[in-house]
Amino acid sequence: MSAKDHSAVIQLFDLLESRYAMRVIWALSDGHPQTFRLLQDSVGGVTPNTLNTRLKELRAAHLVDHGGDGYRLTSQGADLARRMTDVQQFASKWSHQLARAAAHAA
């Protein structure tokens, strides 16, 4: 991986590590636009101030956009959300393996 590629990965991870950023992307991944209030409910537990901050950051990163019908993922945001399903599949397998290892250790 080149230094430029490494820097891009770090930049993306920094954005996604921000509290609720991945939850916002996940909540919008079904392709249906959501109003601020609906998105707040979908994300769960996020304050309006925090959600507003995350939305500004995600919009600046061209992952989320806002239209007349609410917030939605951009094409780049949708691509990222599709790639996050790979992480979901990995997490599921990983969790099962941990549970089996814990059961064998007990």
TrEMBL record:
UniProt cross-references to Pfam families, sorted A to Z: HxlR (PF01638)
Domain HTH hxlR-type: 15-97
UniProt keyword annotation of Membrane present: no
GO MF, one annotated term: DNA binding
Superkingdom of origin: Bacteria
Keywords for the protein's UniProt record, in alphabetical order: DNA-binding, Transcription, Transcription regulation
Regions that span the bilayer: none
InterPro entries: HTH_HxlR, WH-like_DNA-bd_sf, WH_DNA-bd_sf
Protein name in the entry: Helix-turn-helix transcriptional regulator
